[in-house]
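Usage

Read records sequentially. Each one opens with the input sequence:
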Amino acid sequence: MKAVVITTPGGPEVLKLQQVDDPQLNDDAVLIRVAATALNRADTLQRQGMYPPPKGESEYLGLECSGVIESVGKNVSRWKVGDQVCALLSGGGYAEKVVVPAGQVLPIPSGISLKDAASFPEVACTVWSTVFMTSKLSSGETFLIHGGSSGIGTFAIQMAKYLGIKVFVTAGSDEKLKACKEFGADICINYKTEDFVARVKEETGGKGVDVILDNIGGPYFQKNLESLSIDGRLFIIGLMGGVKAEANIALILAKRLTVQGAGLRTRSVEKKAEIVSEVEKNVWPAIAEGKVKPVVYKYFPLSEAGEGHKLMETSAHIGKILLLA
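and closes with the structure output:
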């Protein structure tokens, strides 16, 4: 098969489509012929040599895919050859074929094309496992999403609105904020021209929001603590702004705050299967109802993975960038 290979750690130009060995099927997995895969920020870090795959997982990029099952392991009962599916991966999506544990496979959501289904597994599993399964975000609460126009952000906005939650977002341009508004965001804040802490306090009568989903890290840590309500929950899923922070941690005690981090890729096969099952039960119906839609900014052929990475690193996109195998 062909796969995108990191020829040496570096910039987008190091990604080359090459002939490689097919992955080997095991008894508890399925082999998928990939139709599409999606780019994630983690891919750009792995390309630079900063985020190696977990031991024993595919060396190729790609944390989600859609496609058609070509073969199934002998212990697999739910799936059969010919099924159209999408899947959460630990790696290997930037290829023509990938082997996936059966518990990480999902049916294509009703009404969604095979290729666009690749935009859902990683964002759905990340958002559902963090702010819903762990932080217990629920109807009537308030939710601040940093990077509202990202793949994670555009999904989180739609899912939260489906569940009756008031959504605040930050983004860096009027165009991105307009898109967030169209996806359902209630309060849209340009972090380049506004102090999001002040705006959150203003919009909540000084109370703050219940849950924050943060992909920035260090520079936002103190501001996030200030933006949370009593018993608020901060979930950190990215460190795009840096890893170091200086903060008044007395706020954590005074407000009884919870600060958590997430790493989906390194979870056990069993835990990933549990998350995938919860996503199918809770998220797939929202997609089937048309309340949560795929947000795809651009498609590239697999051979132009480097161009996709260049686009992602400009942060000009809204939603997901897909590679078509």
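Summary fields computed downstream for this record:
- The chain has two domains: 2-119+295-324, 124-261.
- Residues 124-261 form a domain with the Rossmann fold fold (CATH 3.40.50.720).
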